[in-house]
User: Which sequence fits this backbone?
């Protein structure tokens, strides 16, 4: 029986940095914002991040900074200036496909990244590298892959398929002592098509999908869930679950890749099903709809606006094929198609909902429902209002930029 996905009780709503429309824990300041309700809330566009030209897959560190690959070079967002994407280093001994890596995935504890080489220059020598941050010391493991997600800080789930045989999900043990022959156990088999994404919810249920229907009976975009008790025995010698027979259908959406969860248990789905006409968006599936599917009430409907929000940052083109990542430091949904389009949970209806209790910021609610906290640089400040501009006002403004307001204590 499935453990309920309803363990999430509502949005963990981040604040917004006061100067850059950006909320990032640890690195950048937060301002509190009002929560409108505990039910599913749609996302609103928050910001756009330009990556180095040609940069490929991205992910987000636990502190909210983005990390990106440009071939074998690793770039990371500057902690204090999010407009700066800085070179971190070069992956050692990398053999990547000419079109770049398949994925980069940050481990849950933020200390390592996993990188898929997309078959290398030959397109048939598949390896998955695991590298420490920030030094990038690491090793390449032999392993087929299309997409990946960490189960924990050691086990990395990989989807793999060759368009000749049914696809699979394997679990790579990144502590394996022999990189050329690692422990890489099949936990899901008989996916009737090309590889999709893979992810886990907070109680260990595994979600994966059919990325391109070939053998069936599942169709492109079918996402099925397998409870921990059914898929985990394969790790200790049991049989893998059968995608076409076991588990529960959660939704038919896009091409089921990538797959991620946000902090509230909403399922994020990217890709596109051109033959099925389901393209040009990222799907955000309400956690309640996921829980209903797990509970036997039927799959969610990707075109039902009460169950799924479709995010499309480029409305001028009707054939976009988007990737998606969740940023754990900001609770933003990152929609990728070259630049990164960040969508944040809507948290306000008016500027009054955005009061951050800091007297030296002007607080605004955007049309997208996102709070902005802008430093208010003015003469006679709120805490030192005495009808004249003097040294106390100057000190108050400097305190505001430093993130403190001692005159208001």
Assistant:
């Amino acid at each position: 029986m499935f453990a309920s996905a309803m363990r999430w009780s509502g949005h963990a709503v981040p604040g917004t940095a006061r100067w850059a429309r950006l909320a990032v824990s640890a690195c950048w300041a937060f301002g509190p914002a009002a929560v409108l309700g505990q039910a599913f809330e749609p996302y609103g566009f928050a910001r756009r991040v330009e990556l180095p030209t040609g940069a490929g897959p991205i992910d987000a560190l636990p502190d909210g900074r983005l990390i990106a690959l440009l071939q074998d070079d690793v770039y990371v967002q500057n902690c204090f200036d999010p407009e700066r994407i800085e070179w971190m280093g070069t992956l050692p001994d990398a053999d990547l496909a000419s079109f770049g890596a398949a994925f980069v995935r940050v481990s849950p504890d933020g200390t390592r990244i996993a990188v898929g080489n997309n078959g290398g220059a030959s397109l048939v020598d598949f390896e998955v590298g695991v590298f420490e941050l920030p030094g990038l010391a690491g090793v390449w493991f032999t392993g087929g892959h299309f997409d990946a997600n960490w189960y924990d800080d050691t086990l990395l789930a990989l989807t793999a398929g060759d368009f000749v045989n049914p696809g699979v999900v394997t679990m790579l043990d990144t502590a394996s002592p022999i990189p050329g022959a690692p422990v890489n156990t099949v936990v899901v088999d008989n996916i009737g098509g090309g590889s999709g994404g893979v992810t886990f919810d907070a109680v260990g249920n595994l979600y994966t999908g059919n990325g391109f229907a070939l053998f069936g009976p599942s169709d492109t975009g079918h996402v099925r869930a397998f409870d921990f008790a059914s898929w985990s025995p394969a790790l200790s010698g049991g049989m893998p679950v059968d995608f076409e027979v076991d588990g529960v259908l959660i939704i038919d959406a896009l091409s089921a890749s990538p797959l991620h969860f946000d902090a509230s248990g909403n399922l994020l789905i990217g890709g596109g099903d051109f033959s099925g006409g389901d393209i040009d968006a990222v799907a955000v599936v309400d956690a309640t709809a996921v829980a209903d599917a797990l509970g036997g009430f039927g799959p969610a409907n990707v075109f039902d606006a009460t169950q799924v929000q479709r995010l499309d940052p480029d409305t001028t083109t009707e054939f976009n094929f988007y990737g998606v990542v969740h940023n754990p430091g900001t609770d933003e949904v990152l929609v990728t198609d070259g630049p990164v389009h960040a969508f944040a949970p809507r948290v306000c209806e008016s500027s009054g909902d955005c009061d951050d209790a800091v007297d030296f910021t002007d607080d605004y609610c955007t049309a997208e429902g996102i709070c902005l906290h802008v430093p208010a640089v003015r003469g006679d400040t709120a805490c030192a209002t005495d009808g004249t501009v003097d040294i106390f006002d100057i000190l108050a403004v400097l305190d505001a930029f430093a993130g403190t307001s001692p005159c208001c204590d």
About this structure: The first strand starts at residue 43 and ends at 49. The longest helix spans residues 391-401. The chain has a mean pLDDT of 84. The two ends are 53 Å apart (CA to CA).
